[in-house]
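@channel sequence for tomorrow's demo:
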Amino acid sequence: MPEPTPDPPLWGCGTAAAPPAELDAFVGRAAELGALARTLDAARLVTVTGAGGVGKSRLAARAAAQAAARWAAACWGPGDCPGPARAAIWARVDLAPLRDAEFVDHAVVEALGLTDHTPRTPRETLLDLPRVLGLAAPHRSSGAGDRLLLVLDGVEHLAEACAGLVTELLRGVPQVRVLAVGRRPLGVTGEWLFPLAPPTEEEAVRLLVTRAAQHGVPVCGADPVVRELCRRLEGLPLAVELAAGRLRTLSPGRLLERLDDRFRLLTGGPRDVLPRHRTLRTAIGWSHELCTPEQRLLWARLSVFTGPFDLEAVEYVCSGGGLAATDVLDVLGELLAQSVVAREETPSGVRFRMLEAVRAYGADWLAAAGDADRLRRRHRDWYVGLATWCELEWFSPRQAEVATRIETDLPNLRSALEYCMSGPNEAHLGQYLAGCLWFCWAGCGRLTEGRHWLERAVALDGGHEQSRLKALWVLGYVTILQGDTVPALAALEECSRAARSSASATALAYAEHRAGCLALVTDDVERAETLLRSALERYRELGELNSTVLMGQVELAMTRAFQGDLPEAVRLCEDVRRVCDDHGERWSRAYALYVLAYAAWQEGNPGHARDLLADCLADAHGFHDLLGSVLAVELLALVTVSEGDAAEAAVLQGAAAGMWASVGLRLFGSAYYNAPHELGEARARERLGDERYEECVREGAGLGREAAVSRALGRAGARSLPALPGPRGQRRRGTPGMREPAASPTRKGGETAG
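structure tokens (generated this afternoon):
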């Protein structure tokens, strides 16, 4: 019988295979190509997975050609020096057009250019490839031999058939390696997964510029609008390329304005590509077709999340109504396998995320099912509960954990706030949530954002007085820290009046406390002391003990220090430090250390002051507390000039000036707070001269925040700059599984924001 013979092949043999016939430029992906090359060298089966339109096929084809070239370069040469391979062959099998699993084997045979007139099945022909193609087997010791790399492109809808073929080939033909490409893995033994994410922002911009140029449209990659457009598209290559096509008729700015309707906008791909890659909607819709009804249901419900989300949130928000809570884990796992959902590591642990295009597709289905509002309410409930738990745990050894978690979950908290602010009968929850997050706004460097939500909240009529009172005093606090005293005074006076009218002792205590803080930064030190002592007495009567109460004691200490009573200031702050150490609290402790450092400098002990400020700055910066950080840097500058280094002191003053721009009014406009700065500047100018002093200040102003803090801590002798401070002397516990949106059980002092 005639033997199968290769037709003019689509593969390279003996020499490097030619690169794939690319009709447009391959842009970026150098890091991914390098990583995939290493994986192909290490494994016989690698599957590139990722969402539709992320660029899997282009990457795989380029990687296969490079692998064949690399392996062929190691072939036996004229001197018969054995290398790891004698010949390198690669073939791409396009499975996208197939609908019948029976034709998978035929497609592979055809891609290899084999003509077989025997009665053998295509599977039998493939298992006989070593003889048909004359492939040498790998040597037992050196591994030298031929390699055949099969690229199976588009396996997701034929995964079972492809898995069976691949398993037999890998077991029966040692020369074969497989690079599979699809939206889900094959799920066979020995498979190495290579999840592909969208490219970096820089690469996305380069892609947009390149593709726009192909359409005859010049685009500047440095244009902020162009960069924002790529960010909004999340760098998804298909979306970027479709957007480049639209630039023939729309400017980048107009395109960005219309991006909310991305599925209608991003259409019109080339005629020679797969139909499902001609529009963004069909690219995403192909994944939807491959899902089971349960998977489609969860996909739609997951669209209520913004940014990363965790398993516990999914189980609470998305279960019920056709999807049992016990099934959520398995269904989510399937969506992960199909690249609908991506997994990512965050400082708060494992989170999941959907690309915006994938999320928007699910949101359309959720709206069509009429279930969007119910899911938004469940989403709101969960994140109100999370914020309540975080507020309670802020005054605990979990404080650092809370700060990290809030940062991770902030996109979803914003979404919950927006729902509360705009939905009917939700205003009181918006007021509660905005006030509940006081520690995020004041303690984690988000004063401007906090003010935005708080001002919106207090403008609403929620019908729940206590929630509004809380939002009012938190608004007063935030605006004080920004140095904006007029709106701060208005908010606190309104809060005090309403608190007296409704007999809310708690709100009155917090309003009085913040009024004392306002008096302090406006240099009315005696009134500040009176108000703060009164507020602290009210806290004691209420049984309140938390970070806010301790901050009140630190502020009282500051009034005593400004009035020259350093021993009393030190006593008050040492008491705060002791309580903080007992409770694992680091944020209020940092401010106590600031006052202690001020006292140490006043007492002529700059070395001790520097040590205290190093500890203070490390903690404040770890929480992203800009105010605490810049106050510490300001005082460090004075300590530094006191130690004789005027040039470095001027650099630190310049760095502090740059940081104040992100906080608010420099040193609150306060003569008391400004006195150390003025003294430090006078001493530095005297030693350096005006010209040299200004030169050093400009150097400091040019430092970014991270560089400025690192420099300050380096001068202070700190070994490293922590990402986030952890509690001292306390064992950190894991975050409990939050199965209900309600807060932790109330304890005395637990309502840390009044």
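heads up for whoever presents: The mean pLDDT is 84.
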